[in-house]
């Protein structure tokens, strides 16, 4: 099932953790709707700028989210977030493009890049105004991008 021209439900719900532990990772109707919004409003426009994106983690049922040690406040169980790796450019270059889109009013809720990891986290919500929050994860903490002075700048 396509959620958008370039993203499928299968790739947004794939989970090695769910498979290995036998945990159900099927989104309900509301979560599928949120995944479609995420794909159409965030992933497709970013893909148009940076090229293909590999989804490493999309929807996570609450049980999968807990099993991977993610925050209980994560947007993944709502179908509002995806971790992606850009395939045709570096993660850092892709993240800089995302920052430019945010400066132009792009409706992103969170954009997070990670020191030492190849992916970035992108989220949106249609439940409230997007925060436009840009963070860097150092592994031990999340730092606002404008306060960050590490190796990714």
How many helices? 5
The largest pleated sheet is described as: 6 strands, mixed
Q: Give the beta-strand count.
A: 8
- Counted up, domains total 1
The pLDDT mean sits at 94
CATH class: Alpha Beta
Computed structural class:
alpha+beta
Helicity level, as a percent range? 25-40%
Q: Report strand order across the widest sheet.
A: 3-4-6-5-7-8
What would the CATH topology be?
A: Muramoyl-pentapeptide Carboxypeptidase, domain 2
Q: How would the global form be characterised?
A: globular
The CATH architecture assignment turns out to be 2-Layer Sandwich
Keywords:
153 residues, alpha+beta, Muramoyl-pentapeptide Carboxypeptidase, domain 2, 6-stranded mixed sheet, two-stranded antiparallel ribbon, 5 helices, 22% strand, globular
Describe this structure in words.
By secondary structure, the protein is of the alpha+beta class. It has one domain: Muramoyl-pentapeptide Carboxypeptidase, domain 2 (2-Layer Sandwich), CATH 3.30.1380. The chain is built from 5 helices and 8 strands. A 6-stranded mixed sheet has the order 3-4-6-5-7-8. Strands 1-2 form a two-stranded antiparallel sheet. A hairpin with a 4-residue loop joins strand 7 and strand 8. The longest helix is centred in the first third of the chain and has 22 residues, at 29-50. It is globular, with a radius of gyration of 15 Å. The termini are far apart. The mean pLDDT is 94.
What's a quick, concise take on this entry?
This protein is α+β, with helices and mostly antiparallel strands and 153 residues long.
């Amino acid at each position: 099932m396509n959620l958008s021209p370039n993203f499928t439900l299968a790739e947004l719900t794939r989970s090695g953790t769910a498979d290995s532990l036998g945990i159900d990772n099927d989104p309900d109707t509301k979560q599928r709707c949120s995944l479609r919004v995420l794909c159409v409003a965030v992933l497709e426009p970013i893909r148009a700028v940076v090229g293909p994106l590999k989804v490493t983690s999309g929807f996570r049922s609450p049980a999968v989210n807990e099993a991977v040690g993610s925050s209980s406040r994560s947007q993944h169980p709502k179908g509002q977030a995806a971790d992606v790796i850009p395939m045709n450019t570096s993660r850092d270059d892709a993240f800089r493009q995302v920052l430019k889109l945010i400066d132009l009013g792009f409706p992103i809720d969170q954009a997070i890049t990670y020191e030492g990891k190849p992916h970035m986290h992108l989220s949106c919500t249609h439940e409230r105004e997007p925060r436009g929050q840009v963070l860097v994860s150092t592994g031990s903490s999340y730092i606002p991008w404008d306060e960050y002075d590490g190796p990714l700048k």
